[in-house]
Structures are given as structure tokens and as C-alpha cells.
Amino acid sequence: MRRQPILQVDAFADRAFIGNPAAVCVLEEPAEDALMQQIAMEMNLSETAFLRRHDDGHWDLRWFTPTVEVDLCGHATLASAHALWHEHGVQAAELQFQTRSGTLRARQVTNGIELDFPAVNVKPESPPPGLLEALGAPARSVSRNRMDWLVELESASAVRSLAPDMHRLSTLPARGVIVTAASDDPRFDFISRFFGPGSGVPEDPVTGSAHCALAPFWSARLGRSSLTGYQASARGGVVGTVVKGDRVLLQGGAVTVMRGELLL
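The structure corresponding to this sequence follows.
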């Protein structure tokens, strides 16, 4: 029997039980894809992150939902950086992760951790059949990127009150649907929610990768590069964003809430 240490970390959070929980496994040896998928299914969180160190000090990083591997994940990357620094004693000032979305970087800042991610810009597009009906709300605009649909609603209250038809959303040809509006709270610039039932995540508590699209989307509308988003899920979470050309900096805190072992 092999014992695999595993952590659960609440990301985009400054205390336990808010933000988005992610499981983090630091692997001593390669793991088969099927095993990683089984572990993610067992953990039953939005994402489980798997890390393995290179000889040069960089890290391979992969992310799995309970049903699929995904190309980009913010909260589980933030959770991974927190785990390496605060649970595994890694001393590097900057962490580099090799992923399906290229090289991602993390560094410690005053208010937590800053991630350097690719901007994932959206383009206006006609909504596919069933999208607006599944959301049950009129849209101010509809856009699309390589991963998700982005639907702007008329108000923050419309975003908060959404009760989508998850079955209909799960049939759409996309990883998920980002819903957003300008914030009605002066502490934030915009609010959002993220639904990905087709990827095994009915509603994600806080979605870092969605902010790779939300940050440039709202930066263009508000005329500022530094913005603060609030993801209005039941758990809720704050994401600081800075648009820098074709990159987006994501900022947030993280808290370890569980340490354990998988018996494999």
C-alpha cells in the first residue's frame, strides 16, 4: 500500500470555509491519468491539483474536476502555491508551473499570492440555442472565448438571483458559462458567477480562470487595468486582477483546512 499525502486548501479566502476549496497532491513519482481522475472524483471538489517537481525546481501541474481534466484553473494553482510554500517548505521566491496553458507563475505579495496567467479575451458572438433560456434572464451582451461563454446581465442583482437550468447548460458546447455585471457594491468593480455542469462543476465557488476573461472584459469598459471582482456564489470570494498586455495577474489569499493521506 502506498500513502499519498493530500491537502485541502480554501483559495481566494482569508479564513476557512469561504472561497473555493481545492485538493492538492504533491507526487513523488508519475501517476497515471486514470488514477488522478479517480482521486479527483473521490475528493469531489471543483478541482484537484497534481504537482511533480522537475530537477530544475519547476513544477508540472495538472488539474482535474470530478469528471474531466481542464486546461486552466486559477484557484487550484493558488492552492498549490500556498501548499508548496506553507505546507511543503519550498523556499523559492517565485514558483513556475508547467501546464496545458503554458508556464504559469506565482509569487507572494502583501495581500496573499499573485498568479501570472494568460489573458483569455472574449469576442462578441450570438448566443447558442438554449443558453439564455437556460439562464432564465435577458442578456446585455454575449461573448465567447476558447473555453467559456460570457454573458453580461443588466444588474448585479440579476446575477445574484440566477437559478439556471443546469441540465440545459450542461448540453452547451463549452467548458462553462460566466455570468457577470457591474458591481452595486463600492468595494468591487464587477461581480460574477460561473456554471460548468458539463465539466462536472454545477456552480464553481470562485473561478480564477474565469477572471482571465473577466479582467480584460471589464478593463475595456471601465478604463482601468486594476480591478477587483467578487464571485457571488454561496461561499463567495474576492479576486484582485491586473491586466498587463496579454497577461492577467490574479491576487488572493489561501488557507489550509485539511491534511491527510490517500491509501493507494
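The chain has a mean pLDDT of 96.
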